[in-house]
Design a protein that fits this description.
406 residues; single chain; 4-stranded antiparallel β-sheet; 4-stranded mixed β-sheet; elongated; alpha+beta
Length: 406
């Protein structure tokens, strides 16, 4: 009893009251090891949701970030001020013997580590050649590393030289006084065809698919590509600069300059059409960025044939309907028939365009082609589209509702 009375005299009466000021934060970091320099190298940063301060639920959302010796830890607290947490922080004023209680939010800090999914996605996006190069540069001997550096240096030099030549070709074409011909303004999905032709070369006329002004504009580019070698083609394959269907058909060895120019113009035009086909809908309006090494005559022509423009909310929007997309695919397949002499293995076109082989096969059939399968050991199962004379288009079948099949 005497001991209890002495303790009471030693402890003066304390008045407790609740504070309305800014709430403190209690944080726990169980996975952080304290070091001698813990206080000097630890930084705390608190973030608060200020989108709507009148809403107590949003105003109470906080995020605490701790940086300790280069290791970041993050914690969140979504508790509202009305209900608060069960934790209080008491502040004692020794002069007045008043203790102020403040509701505190308890935040558990956890180390921030990059998720495994992000790392796996980054690694899975690498090709086999890139993975092999990284392994060789890290664990290979000096001879292999020296060989890889030499190949990269040669490829970069040759690629830069060709890029400069292509840029000069763009400038020379854009500054020329070329008339922009837009003769191809067909409403049908299929390109113009002569089903009564007695020669396969007369089924599709190149001037019906590519105007003369576009062929003239592509002349500087075909001259640059004709000088390329297999080394340039391999470099373009690694950079994914052109579709595989185009790269597998160059370099070109032809004695006739005019025929070589037409052949390369058809390949370049196929490349531009595939680029337009794979563009997202939001990126259709960016012409120059989507086609950096293409004459403006060609860009304007393909946009006029396969896209449409309209105003939405005061802005000009570029769109591509399903019918225009089908028309674009038909033009690509028609040019592929001309390039491959009316016998096309369209496995590479499936990879380049992202269109399933069944859809391409049906489209070839709608143009009068026959689909065959190869039977060789190496080429077993590959589909080939062959056009034969006389050209017979499939009959028009009415869909449900009386609409024609396109």
């Amino acid at each position: 009893k005497q001991w209890y009375q002495r303790r009471v005299r030693a402890c003066p009466r304390v008045t407790v009251k609740l504070s309305n000021s800014t709430d403190p934060i209690i944080c726990t970091a169980s996975n952080v090891v304290k070091s001698k320099t813990f206080k000097t190298k630890t930084e705390f940063t608190c973030y608060q949701n200020t989108s709507d301060m009148t809403n107590p639920r949003l105003a109470a959302q906080r995020m605490l970030v701790m940086d300790c010796d280069g290791v970041q830890s993050v914690g969140k607290s979504w508790e509202t001020k009305n209900y608060g947490s069960q934790y209080m922080v008491g502040v004692l004023d020794k002069e007045t013997n008043e203790m102020t209680l403040r509701p505190a939010a308890l935040i558990n800090l956890k180390p921030y580590v990059r998720s495994y999914d992000e790392e796996e996605q980054r690694v899975s996006s690498l090709t086999y050649g890139e993975k092999y190069k990284q392994l060789a540069m890290k664990f290979g001997d000096s001879r292999i590393q020296k060989t890889i550096r030499g190949k990269d240096r040669i490829r970069d030099m040759e690629s830069n030289t060709l890029d400069e030549a292509m840029q000069e070709a763009v400038v020379s074409v854009d500054t020329a006084n070329l008339t922009k011909q837009t003769d191809l303004n067909h409403n049908d999905v299929l390109p113009p065809m002569n089903t009564n032709a007695k020669d396969l070369n007369d089924v599709f006329l190149i001037t019906d698919l590519i105007s003369e002004s576009e062929i003239t504009a592509l002349a500087p580019f075909t001259a640059v590509i004709r000088e390329c070698t297999q080394v340039h083609v391999n470099a373009w394959k690694e950079q994914n600069k052109y579709p595989g269907f185009m790269l597998s058909r160059i370099p070109v060895v032809m004695d006739d300059d005019h025929m070589a120019h037409l052949y390369l113009s058809e390949l370049l035009y196929i490349s531009n059409l595939i680029t337009l086909l794979k563009l997202p809908r939001k990126s259709l309006s960016h012409k120059k960025t989507n086609f950096p090494n293409t004459p403006s005559v060609v860009i304007d022509s393909i946009y006029k044939k396969f896209t449409s423009q309209g105003q939405h909310e005061g802005k000009i929007r570029t769109s591509m309907s399903d019918k225009q997309r089908n028309k674009l695919i038909c033009h690509i397949l028609a040019l592929s028939l001309i390039v491959d002499k009316f016998c096309v293995r369209f496995e590479e076109l499936c990879k380049d365009t992202g269109v399933k082989s069944k859809i391409l096969a049906d489209t070839y059939r709608s143009m009068g082609c026959v689909i065959n399968k190869l039977k060789g050991d190496r080429e077993k199962g590959q589909l080939v589209a062959v056009m034969k004379l006389p050209v017979k288009l499939p009959p028009v079948v009415l869909r449900k509702g009386g609409k024609k099949r396109e």
